[in-house]
From TrEMBL:
Organism the protein comes from: Mediterraneibacter butyricigenes
Protein name according to UniProt: TnpV protein
One of the Pfam families matching this protein, by short name: TnpV
Top-rank taxon, per record: Bacteria
Classification via InterPro entries: TnpV
Amino acid sequence: MEKFIRDERTGLRYELIGDYYLIAGEDEPEGRPIGIWGQRHLRYLKQHRKVLYSELLISGKLNDYLADLNERAEELFSRLVKQLVEKEGVTEALKAENLMLWVQKMNSIRNTAMEIVSNDLIYA
């Protein structure tokens, strides 16, 4: 079977994926990056939300959906890190006094923020 076929009547191009021909996306690369958060959500969709994944893929909205989610996740992550830094009192003065303690606290803050973003956006 051919990898790509074109329907002359409709002008649509189809790609062989597994045993089925699905409408092929545009040949041009997407302008918006999916990013790490989008890739994690894509993995989640493929494993746990197969119907939603198929609907987004077939409609051609998957990349935009993942790029939007990635942007929201990045904004939430940045906001959470800033809030937690203020709450924990992690300052540049602490960094100058005790670098290892500052690194430990920043790693803890980043891990906390990553867990919140993952639970609220990525695996929801």
